[in-house]
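Bumping my old thread because nobody answered last time. Still need a sequence for this structure:
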């Protein structure tokens, strides 16, 4: 993600207009580029200033209801003239992983590229629409709603929140490992925050009947942390429950739903050693 894209997400985030997926992308980029913190601070100050323009008063019930109705309808409606983009099937790409099936092509290259471009274009237009709505709604909320009501309307992604807390911790520890020639996995943890966040970029594509499973390996024994999903860019972010410094965090490819017996059925496609 470049700085321009980060600025766009930061401005939208200050108005609570990001989807959970965008929250993860924003937090991952922020953790990678702490020098962009001044952008986040400036956007936060701007949003906070909106709330100080007038004294707080109890909002009329119809106003609150109309804002909530607008937000709910915006999550379902597409911009004018836009049709819903078709789902993009993905083909497996797990060469070199023991036990994984051979790759099969799901689409001709040109068709797949066109579908991906359509989805990405739709996402940008939808985000622009959300941003415009959020800007209007945020002003009304800041001027008319009490702090308790504003807090209740704020969407929170637990992974993004955990990553932000860990990144700001004085005892932040970070370790990264490359995999598959292009991918990179990173582990951020803080004992003070008692939280650990795992990020991975460039995961292989999977068929519909396979999932990624996250593991802690301690003293040579794997402990499943459950299935993790990748977004359209093949990135993922997850809180690693039960992590202890010195553990290895690994990912395997398993049948859909994860390993049936709590043990890996394939060799890891990546491993990050925190020792």
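Sorry it took so long. Here it is:
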């Amino acid at each position: 993600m470049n700085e321009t894209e980060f600025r766009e997400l930061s401005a939208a985030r200050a108005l609570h207009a990001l989807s959970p997926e965008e929250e993860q992308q924003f937090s991952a980029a922020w953790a990678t580029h702490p020098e962009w913190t001044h952008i986040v601070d400036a956007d936060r100050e701007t949003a906070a200033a909106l709330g100080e323009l007038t004294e707080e008063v109890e909002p009329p019930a119809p106003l609150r209801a109309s804002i909530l109705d607008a937000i709910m309808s915006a999550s379902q409606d597409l911009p004018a003239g836009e049709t819903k983009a078709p789902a993009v099937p993905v083909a497996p790409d797990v060469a070199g992983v023991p036990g994984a099936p051979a790759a099969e092509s799901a689409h001709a290259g040109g068709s797949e590229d066109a579908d991906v471009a359509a989805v990405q274009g739709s996402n940008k237009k939808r985000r622009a629409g959300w941003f415009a709505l959020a800007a209007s709604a945020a002003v009304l909320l800041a001027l008319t709603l009490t702090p308790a009501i504003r807090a209740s309307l704020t969407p929170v992604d637990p992974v993004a929140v955990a990553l932000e807390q860990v990144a700001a911790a004085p005892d932040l520890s970070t370790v990264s490992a490359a995999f598959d020639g292009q991918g990179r996995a990173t582990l951020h943890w803080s004992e003070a925050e008692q939280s650990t966040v795992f990020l991975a970029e460039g995961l292989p594509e999977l068929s519909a009947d396979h999932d990624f499973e996250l593991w802690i390996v301690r003293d040579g024994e794997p402990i499943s942390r459950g299935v993790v999903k990748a977004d359209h860019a093949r990135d993922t972010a997850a809180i690693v429950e039960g992590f202890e410094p010195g553990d290895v965090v690994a990912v395997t490819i398993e049948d859909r739903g994860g390993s049936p017996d709590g043990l890996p059925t394939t060799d890891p496609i990546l491993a990050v050693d925190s020792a």
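The first strand starts at residue 173 and ends at 179. Let me know if any region looks off to you.
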